[in-house]
User: Fold this.
Amino acid sequence: MRHAPLAAVMTDFLGRLRDESREIPYPAQALRRAYEGPGRRAAARLCEPAAD
Assistant:
């Protein structure tokens, strides 16, 4: 399930590329948002040094 959000974005992109237009822009921002999903942001906060 870890990569499901990334796979969903890429599946949508590839389907649109095939069915709509070869000029569909690459979904870099959507991939970044999917990669940095809520779990990763929470984990990143846990790794931050404690404020004194």
In short: The chain has a mean pLDDT of 81. Residues 4-19 form the longest helix (16 residues).
